[in-house]
C-alpha cells in the first residue's frame, strides 16, 4: 500500500512531467539519453521530496531540482549520463508520449540552444515557458536584474546563431 507521501509524489510527478521532459530535451542529445536523464531527475526528485516544504509551487521546486540534476550530470559527464539505480517500490507513472517528430519545427531553435552554456539553457528554457523574471531568478538563485540582463544577452546570442549572415 502506498503511503500518503508516495501518493502525493506520484500525483505531482504526473502533473509536472512535461517540465522534466523539456529539460531533458535541452540537455540530452538523443532519445536514450533523454530517458536516462528523465529517470535520474525522477530519482533525485523522489529523494528530495520529503524535504519539499511547499514554500514555492511544486513546479518551481521541480524545475530547480531537475535543472540542477541536468546541469550537474552535463558538467560531470559531458552528455554521457550515468544513472543511479533505485531499489524499492516501483511506481509506474503513465508517460505522456514525447514525440520528437512533432517538434521538428523547433529543431533549429534546439540546435542553437544546445550551443549555449548550461545556465543560459536553463534561463532560456524558463523564459520560453513564460515564467516571469521573479520566478526565474528564484529558481536559478540569481537576482531579477541579473536574470533580465542575461536574458537580453542570450536573445542576442540566439539571433546570431539562428541567423549568422544577419539577413
TrEMBL record:
Species whose genome carries this gene: Flavobacterium ammoniigenes
SUPFAM superfamilies documented for this protein: Sigma2 domain of RNA polymerase sigma factors, Sigma3 and sigma4 domains of RNA polymerase sigma factors
Highest taxon above the source species: Bacteria
Keywords: DNA-directed RNA polymerase, Sigma factor, Transcription, Transcription regulation
One of the record's GO cellular component terms: DNA-directed RNA polymerase complex
Protein name per UniProt: DNA-directed RNA polymerase sigma-70 factor
Domain RNA polymerase sigma factor 70 region 4 type: residue ranges: 108-158
Residue ranges of every copy of the RNA polymerase sigma-70 region domain listed in the record: 14-79
Family stated for the protein in its record: Belongs to the sigma-70 factor family. ECF subfamily.
InterPro entries the UniProt entry points to: RNA_pol_sigma-70-like, RNA_pol_sigma-70_dom, RNA_pol_sigma70_r2, RNA_pol_sigma70_r4_t2, RNA_pol_sigma_r2, RNA_pol_sigma_r3/r4-like, WH-like_DNA-bd_sf
Record Pfam families: Sigma70_r2 (PF04542), Sigma70_r4_2 (PF08281)
PANTHER family assigned: RNA POLYMERASE ECF-TYPE SIGMA FACTO, RNA POLYMERASE ECF-TYPE SIGMA FACTOR
